[in-house]
Structure formats: structure tokens, C-alpha cells
Specification:
Shape: elongated
Order of helices and strands: EEHHEEEEHEEHEE
Strand order of the largest sheet: 3-4-5-6
């Protein structure tokens, strides 16, 4: 079996205590994979979106940067690609972040419908553990677009940051 990430890691994996473990028994691996409950990590509604995180059963990444889990946001009209994670914990952080983004996007759309314009363009975007960073054209633009509810948001100069892991 060749992984879609073309990493050269041709191993098959199952989960044991939320940890990916190599499974050399083809029958055991197929039995594990064919049970959807083994693959579904989390599934939640996020406003008008649905966020699903699954265990893949193979390494979509590389030995140095494994990708065993995939988080997808359904209902997005753009060409949004899924997010990948190496560990259960990282996958749950990405899942939680996707839920918060979906809820905020749903609220944003409702505000636009009501005539409230909070739209903005960013120059670049970076994802780091626990944060989604947007670099805007200017600090003035960053100040203008900061949400009133700053529970998940902070600003540093012309960068606004969405924090996944805030409770």
C-alpha cells in the first residue's frame, strides 16, 4: 500500500490507546479499518458547517513529519484542503480550531447579511500549534477588523491571531 503523501512509509497503522501503531497483520488491519467507529475521532456541527476528524490508517506524511489524522470542514464552498496531524492530541486541537472557525464564519455571514462589514484581506497566513496567524496590510487594518469578542483573537502589530486552544 502506498500512502497518498508519497512519503515512502508503506506501513499500515491501527490505533491503540489513541496512538498510531504499525499493524503487520493484513487481516487485522482490514478489520480495524472497515469498522468506521475505529476511524472516526470526532464529528461536530460548527454553525452551518460540519467538522470531521478521522484516523487514516496510514501515514500521509513522512517519517519526520507523520500525518495520521485528517480534519475536514464540510460545507465550505472554497477549495479548502483538509488539515493533517501526527497525534491524537494535535488532531483534536485542529478539530477544535475548525469548530471555532466554522462558528465564527457562520456568525460573520449573518453579520454581513445584517449589513455589518467586518471583511478584510490578508497578505499571508501561517498555522502554528494552537494559532492561525493572519498578516494584514497595516496595523490600522488589523485594529479595524479585530472582533469585539476577543476570546479567541489577539493582535500583534499588523498581525491578527486566532487562538485554537483557548477555553
Amino acid at each position: 500500500m502506498e500512502s497518498a503523501g508519497n512519503s515512502g512509509d508503506l506501513q499500515q497503522y491501527i490505533l491503540q490507546d489513541k496512538q498510531p501503531v504499525i499493524c503487520e497483520d493484513e487481516t487485522a488491519w482490514r478489520t480495524f479499518i472497515n469498522n468506521g467507529n475505529n476511524l472516526l475521532v470526532a464529528q461536530d456541527l460548527a454553525g452551518k458547517f460540519k467538522v470531521i476528524t478521522v484516523f487514516l490508517g496510514f501515514n500521509y506524511g513522512s517519517a519526520e513529519q507523520p500525518k495520521f489524522f485528517q480534519t475536514t470542514c464540510l460545507g465550505v464552498t472554497s477549495e479548502k484542503r483538509p488539515d493533517y496531524a501526527a497525534t491524537w492530541e494535535q488532531a483534536m486541537l485542529r478539530h477544535k480550531g475548525a469548530i471555532q472557525c466554522g462558528e465564527l464564519l457562520t456568525k460573520f455571514e449573518a453579520e454581513q447579511t445584517a449589513g455589518i462589514d467586518r471583511s478584510w484581506e490578508f497578505i499571508d497566513c501561517h498555522v502554528i500549534p494552537g494559532e492561525l496567524r493572519f498578516i494584514l496590510k497595516s496595523e490600522a487594518e488589523a485594529l479595524r477588523v479585530m472582533p469585539e469578542d476577543k476570546t479567541y483573537w489577539k493582535r500583534r502589530g499588523r498581525m491578527i491571531i486566532f487562538c485554537f486552544d483557548v477555553d
